[in-house]
Amino acid sequence: MNVIGAVKAYVEKITDETEPGMKVLLMDKETTSIISMVYSQSEIQQKEVFLLERIDSPNYANSTGLRYLKCLALLRPTQQNVELLCTELRNPKYGAYYIYFTNIIAKADIKLLAEHDEQEVVKEVCEVYMDYLAVNPHLFSIGIPYCLERLSWNQNALQRTVQGLVSLLLSIKKSPIIRFQSNSKLAKELGSRIEDVMNKESSLFSFGPLGHSLLLILDRRDDPITPLLNQWTYQAMVHELLTINNNRVNLSNIPGVSKELLEVVLSAEQDAFYAKNVFMNYGEIGQNIKQLMDQFQAKAKSHQKIESISDMKNFVESYPQFKKLSGNVTKHVTIVGELSSMVNKYQLLDVSEVEQEISSQNDHSTHLSEVKKLIQNEKIRHSDAVKLVMLYALRYQSHTSNETYNLIELLKKRAVPDPLLKNIIYLLEYAGSHARQSNLFDVEDAVKITKRFFKGLSGVDNVYTQHKPLLHDTLEDIVKGRFKDNLYPVVNNHSSGLRAQDVVVFIIGGATYEESLTVHSLNKNYANFNILLGGTTIHNSKSFLEEIENAFKGEDMRLRKHTRHLRNIRFD
Amino acid sequence: MAARSLTDVFLLMRNNAIRSRQIYPEEDASERMHLVSLTDIEEGQGNADDRMPPRWIDYLETAQMILLRLKNKISDLKALHSRHLHRSTFDDNPEDEIAIENCTQEISRMFNEVHRLLQIIKSHSRDNGVKEQRLTTNVYRSLATALQDLSQSFRSKQNNYLRQLKGREDRSKIYFETDLMEDDSEDFDNYFLHSQKMSNQQLLLLEEENVRFVQEQEKEVSAIVKSIVDLNEIFKDLSQMVLEQGTVLDRIDYNIENTQIQVFEGYKQLQKADAYKRKNRKMCAIVTLVAVTVLMLFILIIFES
């Protein structure tokens, strides 16, 4: 169960099956991203794919034809693509066509294509199930930034998500039982749609007996805390502070950055240093960067003294590797440098400490005074101040002396812009206690109290990583066989069956890199369990709040149900 | 990794579609049909260039073939090297060395050949349309990367072999020198006695043999050094390729976005050029002046006659 491996295997299949000869790869917007996540241009060129084209680009239709090329068309089975392909087949630009759809395609569409293939140029039609973005070996995303519309599914997003998950299950050859979060309409709808597809295409899903694997569909609303926190592991931190978009990081707004670093790629497949440090925390990265620098300096020094012929020979031999290393070093040093300057400038360490404490401890008066103190601190960013208030408001929503109202007044005094303040209301309406089924801040549970007590005795080893996402508990319950059937019922009331070894968790409303870390460490600790994590997208706090805001578009916010007491934020 | 082939279904449907087209041909087409399709001829002539593969395609095939052979040759060489280094007998059998030398030479020759082909392909990269230029550049790059990898592995193998050879010599030197010392101490007198008995001719022969041996060794080393020097030239061109691997320049999506931007820019430039051309005032002035001159000439002729 390795999604990057699965997508790579498909690409290899596509490029190897055709006869030798020069090839052109014809893609659409989404398949371009899918391929880019796992293959680089130089790698695909080694497979004799020398041209890359987008079928939906505006000038594709009038570009010249090269009949001596073979065309590999890798497309999603959408209406638009089928139409474009029909016009293409009527006037073929290339000598032979091998058509691959990334998902299940309707027979009617195939018929349409067959009717347009008058010159009989199509040699092969095949479905390869790679309709998702493979981010890490255990992490995938569908790539939908906004999946909700007035708090229910946007129909296009739902369709796309169903397709993505179906293709994922096919690519890892699993026909799982599907469980969903019982209080979420979204999860239930998605679950039954997938079940429908599985029943309809039962011949495809015949991978042996049912029940050895599990697809668990969760709703982001059950854990709104995780995407709000500041992160301290490399991948998560880069995403929170600089934003990773399909493994690409845009550094163009860092002052004084050199031209070749305006945009960099962070891919564990091609970058050994990154692969090693994806899940390391901020302090460890500092050390590792220093090691990398030392290594680099030693190499650089050995290149300085060139006296004999053999020195020259050695130099010439290792020069490209040296240049590559130097590019890599500059990239990571720039990124880490930027991260550290942001951490210092916005006092993120202080902010994060309070965030972590609110999220994992229970002490109303201390937390309140700490939040108040930080709000009055001029150095921290508005967005961080607002996030602190959000965490406080979620944490102590039902506390008798809740002071969210006063905190908002304080924020107003700071001249925090209005849209940010409105986000507090959106968040509380989206994921307040009315919307959650698990006790996110469960203090009554006896087990947890003892746990916390012991933790208090031994002291916390790292104050910045105290928080464990809710997903951790959920998955641990699965692994230990304590899973509650009433909270996570099976779609269509099938029998729950055996304990699953292979688990695919999907979060509607986006996963986070912190959860990816959790899954990674669980996979490592329980060797006979295989867990994959997926989400409609991968969130940082900014994109998470944007998605929530978007979910309320068109809703009349003056009639809000759960935050009527916060009268100091107005919607007109 | 499940996959489903729909080729059979597709072929069936295509055959059906063809059959139904033959049964119900379009009506107006049958009457007004040209005996020979006009557009086809025109297009056929117009697109003659399109249908012809570029001239360098043969070179590409040759280069790919050579690269494949090169890969085998390099692994052959490795086997020869290890056989030469690990053979149990102490006698120098020159067959191995000759084989190694031949192999090395052939590899260098092949590298040079591929490099030459690459240059030819590169020289074509300004031919024809934008798309073909892109194709040519990509072909060139991918070949260069493959060549780069191979030359890297070849050079590291060569160096390895040289180092081991040297190491062995050093080691043997230690042994033989100590041997000599022991000889010296034990059979010192003996040695002198024998040596006196050695005729001058024998000494000369021994020396000649030594010289020959040393020369052979030197030739071996210099051949290897030469092959490395040859490769460096190729290498210069290629080092750039390695740098780009792992950067954003090697991303598929980035490249596609970039070409789109470039095409759009090109379109804008064309529009601009068009506008300039339309506004070509000089031409207007020349034309009017010519017209006026002709008119005046007429008037002159009419009035004179």
UniProtKB/TrEMBL annotation, chain A:
<dbReference type="Pfam" id="PF00995">
    <property type="entry name" value="Sec1"/>
</dbReference>
<protein>
    <recommendedName>
        <fullName>Vacuolar protein sorting-associated protein 45</fullName>
    </recommendedName>
</protein>
<dbReference type="InterPro" id="IPR043154">
    <property type="entry name" value="Sec-1-like_dom1"/>
</dbReference>
<dbReference type="GO" id="GO:0031410">
    <property type="term" value="C:cytoplasmic vesicle"/>
</dbReference>
<dbReference type="InterPro" id="IPR043127">
    <property type="entry name" value="Sec-1-like_dom3a"/>
</dbReference>
<dbReference type="InterPro" id="IPR036045">
    <property type="entry name" value="Sec1-like_sf"/>
</dbReference>
<keyword id="KW-0813">Transport</keyword>
<dbReference type="GO" id="GO:0012505">
    <property type="term" value="C:endomembrane system"/>
</dbReference>
<keyword id="KW-0472">Membrane</keyword>
<keyword id="KW-0653">Protein transport</keyword>
<dbReference type="InterPro" id="IPR001619">
    <property type="entry name" value="Sec1-like"/>
</dbReference>
<comment type="similarity">
    <text>Belongs to the STXBP/unc-18/SEC1 family.</text>
</comment>
<dbReference type="GO" id="GO:0015031">
    <property type="term" value="P:protein transport"/>
</dbReference>
<dbReference type="InterPro" id="IPR027482">
    <property type="entry name" value="Sec1-like_dom2"/>
</dbReference>
TrEMBL record, chain B:
<keyword id="KW-0653">Protein transport</keyword>
<keyword id="KW-1133">Transmembrane helix</keyword>
<keyword id="KW-0472">Membrane</keyword>
<comment type="similarity">
    <text>Belongs to the syntaxin family.</text>
</comment>
<keyword id="KW-0812">Transmembrane</keyword>
<keyword id="KW-0333">Golgi apparatus</keyword>
<keyword id="KW-0175">Coiled coil</keyword>
<dbReference type="GO" id="GO:0000139">
    <property type="term" value="C:Golgi membrane"/>
</dbReference>
<keyword id="KW-0813">Transport</keyword>
<dbReference type="InterPro" id="IPR045242">
    <property type="entry name" value="Syntaxin"/>
</dbReference>
<protein>
    <recommendedName>
        <fullName>t-SNARE coiled-coil homology domain-containing protein</fullName>
    </recommendedName>
</protein>
<dbReference type="InterPro" id="IPR006012">
    <property type="entry name" value="Syntaxin/epimorphin_CS"/>
</dbReference>
<dbReference type="GO" id="GO:0015031">
    <property type="term" value="P:protein transport"/>
</dbReference>
<feature type="transmembrane region" description="Helical">
    <location>
        <begin position="283"/>
        <end position="303"/>
    </location>
</feature>
<dbReference type="InterPro" id="IPR000727">
    <property type="entry name" value="T_SNARE_dom"/>
</dbReference>
<feature type="domain" description="T-SNARE coiled-coil homology">
    <location>
        <begin position="211"/>
        <end position="273"/>
    </location>
</feature>
<dbReference type="InterPro" id="IPR010989">
    <property type="entry name" value="SNARE"/>
</dbReference>
<dbReference type="Pfam" id="PF05739">
    <property type="entry name" value="SNARE"/>
</dbReference>
